[in-house]
Amino acid sequence: MNIHRPEAERKHRAFLGERWYIDKRNAGLSRFAIAITALNILGHLFLGFEQSWLTPFVALAAAYSTEFIAETAASFGEGRRARYRGGPGRTVSFFLSAHISGLAVGMLLFAAEQLWIIAFAASVAIGSKWIFRVRVANSDGSSSERHFLNPSNFGITVALLLFPSVGIAPPYMFAENIAGIWDWLLPLAVIMTGSLLNTKLTGRMPLIGAWLVAFAVQAILRSTVNGTPMAAALLPMTGFAFVLFTFYMITDPGTTPSRPLGQAAFAAAVAVAYGVLMELHIVFGLFYALTIVTALRGILLEMRFLMVRARRTMTSAAHSTTRIPIERELV
C-alpha cells in the first residue's frame, strides 16, 4: 500500500482547483475587458462621453505602467519569473485587470482637461492591489495574500477626496446622443451581458439580487423617516451609471465574498453605508460606501487569519505535548 497516495491525490485536487479558478478568472476578465472596451469606444464615438478622447489612453498608460513596474519589482525581490513573461497569451492575461481598471477610472471620473489626475487615479487603483493586502489561511496549513480593496472604486474614491475640482462623469452622457428605443436597448444590453457574466463566470448574482433589494429598502426607509418623495430616493436605480455599478463594479470577484450568504451580507452593508452617507448629505455615496465596506472586510479577513493562526499554534503545541500525530486539520 502506498502511504503517500492520499497526499498526492490531495495535491492533484488542489492543482485542478487552482487551474479551474485561473481559467475561469481569465475567462471572466477577458469578457469584462471586451465589454468595457466596446462601451468606451461606442461612448466616445456615438453615445456622448464628455471626457477628452485622450482620457482612456492616459488612464490605460498609467494602469499598464504601474502594473508592470510593481510586478517587475515583486518578481525580482521574490526571485521568480515575472507573470507577464512566457508568451503573448500570458502577457495579455496579466494586463487584463489593469486594462479594466484603467478604462473604468477614465470612464467614470470627470476631470475636464486635468489628465494627470486621471493618470494618478488609475495608478492608485493598480497600486492598491499591491499595497493593501491581507493574509488568508489555506486549508493545507499554508497562507497566501490577496488584495481587498476594489481597485477601480478605490482609485476613483481617492481622486474625489483629494481633488475638489474632480467629479463623477454625468450619468446622462451614457445616452446623450441616442433616443427612442435605443434608450431602452442600451441598458438592457448591459444588464443582459452583465447577468450572463456574473451567472456563468463570477457567481455574483446573489450579490446583485441582494444589492438591489437592500438599496430599495434603504431608499424606502429614508423616504419614510424624512417624509420625502419615495420616487426621488429610488430614482438612482433607473440611471445607466447605477446599472454599470451594479453589474460591473460592486461584483468584483476578487474583493467580494464567494458564498451566497456572504455576498448578501456584503451587499446589504454597502446599501446601509450608502444610506448613512446620504443622511449625512455626502455626495458620491456609492463609491465611498463600497470603499468603506471593502476596507472593513479587509480588516475582518486579517483578524480571521490571526485567529486561525493562533488556533493552529495552540493545537500544534497541544498535540506535540501529548505526542499525538496530526494527520489532517480541517479549517
Question: Could you explain how this protein is built, in words?
Answer:
With 331 residues, the protein is mainly α. The protein contains eleven helices and four strands, in the order αααβαββαβαααααα. The strands form two sheets. Strands 1-4 form a two-stranded antiparallel sheet.
Keywords:
single chain; 331 residues; mainly alpha; two-stranded antiparallel sheet; 11 helices; disordered C terminus
Tell me the helix content.
Answer: over 70%
* Separation of the first and last Cα atoms: 28 Å
* Order of helical and strand elements: HHHEHEEHEHHHHHH
Shape summary: globular
Largest sheet: 2 strands, antiparallel
Mean pLDDT: 86
From the helix content, strand content and strand pairing, which structural class follows? mainly alpha
Biggest β-sheet: strands ordered side by side in the sheet: 1-4
Q: How many alpha or pi helices? A: 11
Which oligomeric form is depicted? single chain
Q: How much β-strand is present in the residues?
A: under 5%
pLDDT below 50 for ≥5 consecutive residues: which ranges? 6-21, 324-331
Number of strands: 4
Backbone CA Rg: 22 Å
